[in-house]
TrEMBL record, chains A, B:
Enzyme class: hydrolase
Stored Pfam families: Peptidase_M32 (PF02074)
Family per record: Belongs to the peptidase M32 family.
Protein name per the record: Metal-dependent carboxypeptidase
Function noted in UniProt: Broad specificity carboxypetidase that releases amino acids sequentially from the C-terminus, including neutral, aromatic, polar and basic residues.
Lineage of the species this protein comes from: Bacteria, Bacillati, Bacillota, Clostridia, Eubacteriales
E.C. number(s) listed in UniProt: 3.4.17.19
Organism: Clostridium ganghwense
Catalytic activity: Release of a C-terminal amino acid with broad specificity, except for -Pro
Gene3D superfamilies noted in UniProt: 1.10.1370.30
């Protein structure tokens, strides 16, 4: 280290801090729009966000930023964190600088129109309303890939935005294994003829009681909402943060379903704990955030499914639920446990169970990949969609509303985003395998309602590093192996063989 | 008009819009800090606000701003609104540019330390803890007056920040009349020997019931909280806005007092209605805000006291209250009305009634004026304070906590702010006099619970203009006279003569 380097690093961090302040500010304005803002204020709010986004763009793409990137990428004194800072700044710089500003502006307008068209199309169940808009969006995305460049596969460039470093080649490998394993399990489950009872989940559960119980569970998970978090309500649940000391989640209560708000709270709690546990020293580096969308989902799904749907977890929490909810009188722990792990071949991704969920994602992945590479076109989508649902899940959408039109993601050009959800499952199972080795008393502790060991393990192995490591490096560092499908497949086989007595 | 002028005006407005976006953003961040933010996030929040304030400072004091100010101040094509824009920008520019940046930074640190010292001093009832800090603050303020310049009286320069154009000379004139009139009335009330009953206000009033009733009253006032507002809770009630389409108020419910939250809602509702009714076309001019602190207070106090404490108002609302609050059973409208207008010589400004409130303010005004002009020093304050309370209100603080240490304002250097509160009362009574002439059926309508005429009159005469007119010009425009004490004095005499049968 030398003083010139230190001085320049201090300047770099101060410069990146400005971006962090702006991003946190935009996040708070968005949170407020979704949770609080009166409708009349939304127009002006968009202008405010637009101005602040413009300022963030200006900083991200400035010559000053370019200077910092060049200096710290090549400087011998840069350690791995400083290198990661420069790399992250470069990803940001390239993404915004390589696409001509005018075209990007046209794209954002097209994207906003496309989302409106998608809403209308979904409502009317008419893909043709959406088609011309989606074609525009796909064309923009294909063009952007050319601007940004690609190596082996054009789709890789889009994946990189959400999952830095992952490739189509890797996804093809792991997703095809997972797909076959799930299809196989689904067939066995069908043959088993067994259907767990779930009626008791859809009695009346007053909002205030659900709220109290969700908070009880979140406290046990050590989501800190006394000092550094809070829970609000919004149409769709989400997690948002402004630094690591103000990390908020939202949920949506349905009084006729016990599961929805509870598992969404556990899920968002997983995201929130991740952000709360990122080490303070990453402030001002732009690395004080999750390593990727997929790693983030691995944390939320770890709590929601891998821990939150075990018998051990409910050994502790079911008696607590019984104290609060006489609605469950007469239902045994075993019935309850099988109920929350009920598997059903269904059409809607957001309502899917833990087992079938990844299939919904893999269908979307396979379609996106071909679409971006020009092997299929927008007009082919409804047919391909329906064929894949028939092939993998054995069910047929009655119309496009419950088929190709169900998700918003394509309407605003978020191609490459879907795989993160399924990657989260794979990462999670591989982390679990290592955690079980590191924590021999894991399940005994869970049975006692002690989730602190899990919290600490995730913090020490994953959370504290923020985005210092790329996903592939992180999983290697934590588990000593690269990403493999087998852990998730084994996990699923073990779990459902036991529940369905296969 | 010519195209060069139009082009340049468009640029000026775009530039001012940036300032408006930043100010609205800072306001939202502050609102969130006071209403929602977890404690852990406050440190980072201050950094965010600090960054955004710095950006606002940069724009306010830029050469570009200076160029606009010079061009539009002198341009023959500028109409009165453009002139007002340039003038407002100049006030802002001068205030920030004339004080050396370093000294201002030192001052803000001293001010933050001083506030902390004030808190401690107040808690311990020890003025000496606060004294050295307050001396620093006063010295800074005296120096700033020299930097900013002054004409007749040094204190005018500080007044100008809150009440553009008002002078010590004018305040001396109106405040001394008001002071004598109130002291006189207080003596008569004492002699009358009559004390209204207020016991029934301090029964138990559940928060939810108070909330519902406050919202009922606010709806009748036509505060739009469906589309453009909302009500939250905070330690101290306040109004804040981000543009004119998102104007929020807060309150604080005390279950053992019917009056506190209700009248604070009516008060804040008055502020909020003002902001909601500023015309849309002032967006991008920096004039889309109240004309001054005093005019703003005139609106809140108009609803809180001048309308909200009349017998006509409660002729409609008391039966509504009775429907909701059996706590008032057996209490007549007359008793209720006299109860809310109960006068008491008390020590604490924030708890004072409508009549004595202005005396509390005038005491502070008289002290501030002498202090800034160097006629008295910080060490003299406790004595002078106590003497004035004895002379005007006939009561003696037992200690400095209920004396000179009660308000926060001096600790952060807000000298010149207090007069606004009393000015609000004077403006309000003068507006009322004109309103009564314009609306001959005013009180009949109030009796029916119809407050729409008031809403419309205030909107058309005051609200819609925002800060286009200076307070003195506005009151002249609305009432055809300059500010006079006599309307407020007559209003007080009439009201209390009737209630106390003087």
């Amino acid at each position: 280290m030398n003083s010139k380097f230190d001085e320049k690093l201090k300047e770099f961090k101060e410069y990146l801090s400005k971006l962090e302040y702006l991003e946190s500010t935009i996040a708070l304005l968005s949170w407020d729009s979704m949770v609080n803002a009166p409708r009349g204020g939304i127009g002006y709010r968009s202008e405010m966000i637009g101005y602040l986004s413009g300022e963030a763009y200006r900083i991200s793409t400035s010559d000053k930023m370019k200077g910092f990137i060049e200096y710290f990428s090549e400087c011998q004194d840069s350690d791995y964190i400083v290198k990661a800072m420069a790399e992250e700044a470069k990803r940001n710089y390239d993404r915004t600088k390589k696409i001509p500003e005018n075209e990007y502006k046209e794209y954002t307008i097209a994207s906003s129109n496309s989302t409106a068209a998608w809403e209308e199309a979904k409502e009317k169940g008419d893909f043709n309303i959406f088609k011309p808009h989606l074609e525009k969006i796909v064309n923009y995305k294909r063009k952007f890939v050319e601007y940004l460049g690609y190596k082996e596969n054009k789709y890789d460039t889009l994946l990189d935005e959400y999952e830095p470093g992952i490739t189509t080649k890797k996804l093809d490998e792991v997703f095809s294994e997972v797909r076959d394993a799930i299809v196989d399990l689904l067939n066995k489950i069908k043959k088993s003829g067994y259907t767990p009872n779930t009626d008791f989940f859809t009695k009346q559960f007053p909002k205030e009681d659900q709220k109290e119980f969700s908070e009880f569970v979140l406290k046990k998970m050590k989501y800190d909402f006394e000092q550094r978090g809070r829970i609000d309500e919004s149409i769709h649940p989400f997690t948002i943060n402004f630094g690591n000391k103000d990390v908020r989640i939202t949920t949506h209560y349905y009084e006729n379903d016990f599961r929805s708000a509870l598992f969404s709270c556990i899920h968002e709690g997983g995201h929130a704990i991740y952000e709360q546990n990122i080490t303070d020293t990453l402030k001002g580096t732009m690395l004080g955030k999750g390593a990727s969308m997929g790693i983030h989902e691995s944390q939320s799904r770890f709590y929601e499914n891998i821990i939150g749907k075990t018998k051990e977890f409910w050994s502790y929490f079911y008696p607590e639920a019984l104290k609060r909810f006489p609605q469950f009188e007469g239902i045994t722990l075993d019935e309850f446990y099988k109920g929350i792990n009920f598997v059903e071949r269904s059409l809607i991704r957001t309502e899917a169970d833990e087992l079938t969920y990844s299939l919904h994602i893999i269908i979307r992945y396979e379609i996106e990949k071909e679409l971006i590479n020009g092997n299929i076109e927008v007009e082919d989508l409804p047919d391909i969609w329906n064929k894949k649902y028939n092939e993998y899940l054995g069910i047929d959408p009655k119309n496009d509303e419950e088929g190709v039109l169900q998700d918003m993601h394509w309407s605003d050009g978020s191609f490459g985003y879907f795989p993160s959800y399924a990657l989260g499952n794979l990462y999670g199972a591989q982390f679990l395998n290592k955690m079980e080795k590191d924590l021999p008393h894991l399940y005994e502790e869970i049975k006692k309602g002690n989730l602190l060991h899990i919290h600490e393990w995730l913090k020490e192995n994953i959370h504290k590093y923020g985005a210092v490591y790329k996903p592939a490096d992180l999983i290697k560092k934590v588990t000593d192996e690269e990403l493999k499908a087998k852990y998730f497949i084994e996990y699923l086989n073990d779990k459902y063989t036991e529940i369905y007595n296969l």
